[in-house]
Amino acid sequence: MDGRRLETDRIHLVRDVMQRRNEGSPVLRLHFPLKCSSFITWSAFKPSVHNCSTTVHNRTPRLRGSEEHDPSFDMHDQIAFLGAVTVLAVLQQAYFFLQVIYARRKYKVPPPTISGPLEFERIFRAQVNCSEYLPLFMAVLWVAGFFFSQVTAASCGLLYLYARHKYFKGYSNSSQERLSPIYFSSGVLWILIAMSGIGVLSHILSPVFGLEIAGTLLTMLRKSIIGF
User: Fold this and answer.
1) Catalytic site residue 125?
2) What are the backbone dihedrals phi and psi of residue 63, each rounded to the nearest 5 degrees, phi first?
3) 49 three-state secondary structure
4) What's the domain range around 55?
5) Same domain, yes or no, for 79 and 187?
6) Which residues are CB-contacts of 203 (< 8 A; sequence separation ≥ 6)?
């Protein structure tokens, strides 16, 4: 019972401090006893046990970094580059779709027909191939960005989109011109897959084996990939 009462008093105390902070009122120094032999001191949400009084210091609790003003700021900062690459990928797919529509009109291939002149079939197949790889690209982009490195994942994402653009243009002109861009984009995908695996393993294994073991190994692997 004392433990539950203690936890309830803590919650009420934090709510009172936060309410006063939001209202712009000074946080008063409070003293009240608990039904136990010790008392709790709260300073910036860090409890410590003292005798004879429970104290809230006359200052507003502060959070570290940008969380002091907006707790969601760090999250936005961590996904901004990934979001930008995602928007570019969507716009690129829209451009490929439009190219297929123009090709249908140019070569007089009405939907749902997917066969026609070789020029149309190359454009159509290039668009379909890019669409097929898009879910895989999105998945490894975000996983690598969350668990490994946002900047590195976003950079790889830009390289992948550039390679896909070259692939679409090359395939539209000739089947042979698609080979180099597709090989390059596939290599970028494998890099993103590797970063995703390393990042997820680091997140899972670090609490189990400790940062000294798993963290050191995964840091070495990360440096071998990105060079720093």
Assistant:
1) no
2) -105, 155
3) strand
4) 2-62
5) yes
6) 147
Active-site residue (options: 5, 29, 62, 105): 105
Known catalytic membership, residue 59: no
The per-residue pLDDT for range 136-171, each reduced to its tens digit, is 999 999 999 998 889 999 999 999 999 999 999 999
Q: Can you tell me the distance from the alpha carbon of 135 to that of 151, in angstroms, rounded to the nearest whole number?
A: 20
The one catalytic residue in 104, 122, 164, 178 is 178
Residue carrying structure tokens 């975000």:
142
**Contact predicate 154/84, CB 8 Å:** yes
Rounded alpha-carbon distances, angstroms, from residue 63 to 14, 20, 66: 14, 16, 8
Question: Is this prediction's pTM over 0.70?
Answer: no
Q: Give the C-alpha distances (Å, rounded to integers) separating 151 from 33, 62, 78, 85, 221.
A: 51, 29, 9, 11, 17
Residue 94 within a domain: yes
